[in-house]
Amino acid sequence: MTNILNPAQIRIGLVSISDRASTGVYEDQGIPALQTWLNNALVHPFICINRLIADEQELITKTLIELVDEEKCHLVLTTGGTGPSRRDVTPEATLAASTREMPGFGEQMRQISLKFVPTAILSRQVGALREIENHAALMINLPGQPKAIAETLEGLKDSDGKVIASGIFAAVPYCIDLIGGPYVETNDAVVKAFRPKSAIKPKG
User: Fold this and answer.
1) pLDDT averaged over the chain?
2) Strands across the sheet with 127-132, in order?
């Protein structure tokens, strides 16, 4: 297991899925983009456990299970492999590792992306939970492009900073609360986490 467990620290698995990047044909952009976004968005201690793997369904499923069951990640974010081509098997692999689907995440990601490109309807991203005896994690498939990753996570704002479409990460901290993970706070300027008033803890 990577590092000593800290119950106050969120453990985040980052999985970039690409045949070419995993074999060194080109440099992976997914994991660096996710790490940069998380560094800006979280005001809470976190650790990332990274994996760069090929578009192989069994390998993806095995990696997700390892990150949840062995590395004890509370959140697993994948990037890549969610389109309609035959090599795009990330959604199937994610569902194979899951115990329950969370369809709202995929629905909202497609709604955000449709503001930019009509081909967003071709995306098959899913969100799901993996629950084992004493641990649970939220797993989310994200787009492959760094710009699209940021857009789907933080949502859309107008020129005055008003939210036009909520990013999916606004719902992630409360979901992690509900499945027994650490209390996660965000940088409101990037994405404001939503919790019912009864679930909000005093700052500090």
Assistant:
1) 92
2) 46-53, 10-17, 75-79, 135-142, 127-132, 100-101
pLDDT of residue 2: 53
CB atoms within 10 A of CB 108: 20
In whole angstroms, give the CA distance from residue 97 to residue 116: 31
Spatial CB neighbours of 14, under 8 Å, sequence gap ≥ 6: 30, 31, 34, 35, 48, 49, 50, 51, 76, 77, 79
pTM, entire model: 0.94
Other CB atoms within 10 Å distance of the CB of residue 22: 18
Domain parsing of the chain, residue ranges: 10-199
Token pair for residue 112? 């955000």
Superfamily in which the 10-199 domain is placed by CATH = MoaB/Mog-like domain (3.40.980.10)
Query: In the block, which residue shows the tokens 């974010």?
Result: 77
